[in-house]
Amino acid sequence: MNKHSPLKAAIGGRSVDEITGSRRLRRMRKADWSRRLVQENHLKVDDLIWPIFLVDGVNVREPIDAMPGVERVSIDLAVKEAERAAKLGIPALATFPRVDGARKDLTGSHILDPDNLINRATRAIKEAVPQIGVITDAALDPFTDHGHDGILRNGVIVNDETVEQVAAAAVMQAAAGADIIAPSDMMDGRIGAIRDALDAGGFQDVAIMSYATKFASAFYGPYREAIGTSGLLKGDKKTYYLDPANAAEALREAEQDLAEGADMLMVKPGLPYLDIIRTLKNEFNVPMFAYQVSGEYSMIKAAAANGWIDGERAMMESLLGFKRAGCDGILTYFAPQAAKLLTA
C-alpha cells in the first residue's frame, strides 16, 4: 500500500501491520480447514446425557406443551427410546417420573416402593439395553403432594428426615440397576448419607453425581409441568436451593459434596451459570456436568418457532458453550437431535 494512501492517513499514519505488529489473528479463520485445525473445544456425542420423562401405562406418549418436541413416555416406549439413544451413541439417560396424584403424600413415601415408576423403568431399560447408563434422582419432589424436594413438617422442609429417606430411595434405585444416583434435593449431608447407604448395601460401584450447585431459578417452570408439580408447590424452594447471586457459597457446596464422596459435580441451571462451571472446574478439576434445564430448552425452541433465531445453530452453540466453560458432559433435552448432527 502506498505510504501516502488515504487509508493509512485515516488510521493515524500507521499501517495495519504496524498497528498489530504483523499479528493478524484472522489468518487462521480464512478457511474451513484452518478453522477446524485450531478449534479449541469440541462437542461430541459422548458428552450428551438425555433426560426423559416417564408416565404409567402402555404405549403412552404425552406431549409436554411447555417443552415442544419433548414427551412423557410409558416404560415400554422408554425402552425404545433407550435403544434409539444407544444407536446414536448417547452414553446415558436420566429418568424423571410423573407420579399419579393418588400416590403422592406429605412425605413422598412412594419413592420407597421398589416397584415405583422409576425403579420399574430402570429394570426394563437395563434388561433391554444394558450398555446404556441410567441416572436416577432420589429427590422427593415427584412424590410429594406439595411439590417440595423434602419432607414437609409444620411448613418447614426437615433436613435430616429427608436425608434418611433419600438415602433409602437411592439404595432401591441402585438395586433396580441405576448406574449413577444424582440427588437433586440439596439437603445438607445427603451425599455422605447416600454413599454410606450404597456401600452398606453392596453398591460400592454405583457412582454419585451431585447436584452440587442447584440454584433457586426461574428456569425450572416447564420441568415442573412435565412431572406434574407446578400446581402443587406451596411457597418456594429458597430455603434449600442456592441464591442465584452467590458464587462463593456454590464453591462451598461443591467442596462439601466432594468431601462426602461425590464422584462428579453438576451445576443447574446451565447457561446462566457458566461462570460457576468454570470456577468449579478450575478449583477441583473433577468430572463436571451441567443441566441445560427445561426453561433453557424452551426458550430456544420458542424463539426458533417464531423465526427469531436459527434453532439448530443456537442449540449447538449453547451446548458448545458448556464445553468451553469446562463441562465433561451435558444433560440436555436436545441430546437426540444434537447426536444426529454430530454423527451425520
Automatic annotation (TrEMBL):
GO molecular function: porphobilinogen synthase activity; zinc ion binding
Source organism phylogeny: Bacteria, Pseudomonadati, Pseudomonadota, Alphaproteobacteria, Hyphomicrobiales
EC number(s) from the headed UniProt entry: 4.2.1.24
Catalytic residues of the enzyme: 214 (schiff-base intermediate with substrate), 268 (schiff-base intermediate with substrate)
Group of enzyme by EC: lyase
Reaction catalysed by this enzyme: 2 5-aminolevulinate = porphobilinogen + 2 H2O + H(+)
Record-level GO cellular component terms: cytosol
Keywords: Heme biosynthesis, Lyase, Magnesium, Metal-binding, Porphyrin biosynthesis
Associated pathway: Porphyrin-containing compound metabolism; protoporphyrin-IX biosynthesis; coproporphyrinogen-III from 5-aminolevulinate: step 1/4
Organism whose genome encodes this protein: Mesorhizobium denitrificans
Family affiliation: Belongs to the ALAD family.
This protein's name: Delta-aminolevulinic acid dehydratase
Classification via PROSITE patterns: D_ALA_DEHYDRATASE
Assembly notes: Homooctamer.
NCBIfam families: PRK09283.1 (NF006762)
Positions of Mg(2+) binding: 253
Gene Ontology process terms (BP): protoporphyrinogen IX biosynthetic process
Pfam family name, one: ALAD
